[in-house]
Amino acid sequence: MSKKTYIITGHYGSGKTEFSLNLALKLSKQNEKITIADLDSVNPYFRTREKQDFLIQNNIHLVGSSLNNHTGQDIPALDFSFASNIKNDEYVIVDLGGEDVGARVISSFKDSLCGNDYNFLCVLNSFRAETNTSDKMINFIHKINTATLLKISGIVNNGHMLHYTTKDDILACQYEIEKVSKELNIPILYTQIRSDIYEQIKEKIISKHIITFETLKIRENWQ
Amino acid sequence: MKVLMKGNEAICQGAINAGCKAFFGYPITPQSEIPEYMAKKMETVSGTFIQAESELAAIHMVYGAAATGIRAMTSSSSPGIALKQEGISYLAGADLPCVVVNVSRAGPGLGGILPSQADYFQATRGGGNGDYYLPVYAPSTANEAYELTVKAFDVADMYRTPVMILADGILGQMMEPVEINENEIESKIIEKNWAANGEMDKRPRNVVSSIDLVASGLEEKNLKRFEIYEKIKQNETMVDNGVKNGDTIAIVAYGTPSRIVLNAIDLLKEQGIKAALIRPITLWPYPYEVFANLPDSIDNILVCELSMGQMIEDVKLGVMGKYPVHFFGRCGGVIFTPEEIVEKVIEIESKKSKS
Q: Which residues, given as ranges, of chain B have pLDDT below 70?
């Protein structure tokens, strides 16, 4: 069996949810069966469950709150039924909440969901103050490992400034992430990058896989 | 240096860079990142963070801290700010400078956690007792939230008044690049000879209180405070007025929703309708004068708020019957779209051509 479980963690603003959605979309285009689980119990807005209609259109099954995926909930109600319903042939993308406080919840699903075979991806953005150097990123990964009782198995380069991201931003983030990757011996599995920027710096990107996108999904396109 | 921050975090960083040394708060969505951030950061600047037992306790702790002359702040969201009204009135009555942050959510009552602008009356008319006003700043971006928080501390000290930052939940939660340049901060630290910080037998005791049981004395204090309010009106009113000659409709909006209006204005341009944004940055003092000097090309005013319509009353006071004032709003946590505003403008414009 291939590794079909993807658990996504990262700091607030790292771009976990954008990455989870884009990864789900990429897999769904390959006609795979996908469940995306929004286990974010700490952030009140900008959560995967807000994109219910979009996910349904793309044949992606959403698991959010046990209370009907209401976006305005202020209670960390998670749908515990999902772990038992996962089939082996399905891809599962688990979008965790920010930081160690948001990631901790996965430890309660660990046995039923993960087995020994999972991708535990840490989305890193060097433009968040808490992960703006390789040292801080390394500390952050240790913190997540401790909180979740799992081990980060891959890094996602998601250097970004939202709509204002430049090619230099992505390369600056990659510079820090490469140091993290070497130090901890964790591969850079994905780089998430807007397609037009990717075209400009294709050959400079160091990453096993690339996830490109046209527009941000969680953010409205306001001025 | 540009960093990516939530509006809530930008407010905190503004406070810290302005020299805020005491924060008292209590968690409530969508502002909980403020106490969370201050809990982590106040220690690093030799400041004090206390998670109070309630919103009431927090605002009265601000009273105590501000009375000693240090820069103090509290934050909450709508129903929590309602609880703080008593303390805000006491602070105003004792002429104590401080900053109160409201990252507003939908109401009335507990309402919901999603964004809303239905606290305009609460912020500008006050829920506390007595004759008082607070300067109220309404940032529309995380960067502006940072800058206005720094300014809020200066204005508070300069005029000895509590100052409010009114941000909506969208701004509190939304991440944006923020330009943080600590060297550029020129916070005006003013010596506070009124502060109750220990007279050390070197000067008469300072007493900080809002009570005065002698009618003539209390009246005098109120009159003096209103002289200061006049100065605040003259010096501190802020508005972003985008109206040019040739525009036919002025859309008035504040905070994050003003950015949705800007997108609507772009869409209207494509349809040949010339609309422009008037964005009050201070909600008190309100920029009434902007409506007295609009170009002749303006036929209509549209007010867009995430409420049933509260700021519209100030717009009408500014317009004084000169133009028809229309309203479009959503409430309860629903956020309007640029397309909805376009539709409303087209409806207004089509009535104009019939008449």
A: 182-187, 353-355
Helix (H) or strand (E) holding A148: helix A134-148
The residue among B4, B8, B140 with the most chain A CBs within 10 A of its CB, best to mutate, is B4
- On whether the CB atoms of residues A154 and A187 are closer than 8 A, the answer is yes
Q: Which residue has the higher pLDDT, A42 or A202?
A: A202
User: From CA B134, how far away is CA B88, in angstroms rounded?
Assistant: 9
**B314 phi and psi, to 5 degrees?**
-70, -35
Please name each of the domains of chain B with its CATH number: 2-236 (3.40.50.970), 240-354 (3.40.50.920)
B contacts of A101 (beta carbons < 8 Å) = none
Q: How far apart are CA B145 and CA B40, in angstroms?
A: 20
Q: What is the pLDDT of residues A30-41, one digit of tens each?
A: 878 888 888 877
Shortest Cα distance, chain B CAs vs residue A72, angstroms: 6
User: Is residue A1 very low, low, confident or very high in pLDDT (cuts 50, 70, 90)?
Assistant: very low
To the question of pTM greater than 0.90 for the whole model, the response is yes
DSSP A113: H
Considering only the beta carbons, identify the residue of A72, A219, A221 that sits closest to B112: A72
Is the ipTM of this structure higher than 0.90?
no
Nearest to B257 by CA among B306, B309, B292: B306
Q: Can you tell me the mean pLDDT for A184-199?
A: 96
Which H or E run contains B206?
A: none
Alpha helix stretches (DSSP H) within chain B: 7-17, 33-41, 55-67, 78-93, 120-125, 142-159, 169-173, 215-236, 257-270, 312-319, 338-354
Sequence-distant (≥ 6) Cβ neighbours of residue B320 within 8 angstroms: B291, B292
Give dist(CA B351, CA A202) in Å, integer: 54
Q: Write down the H helix ranges in B167-245.
A: 169-173, 215-236
Query: Residues of B with CB below 8 A from A128's CB?
Result: 3-4
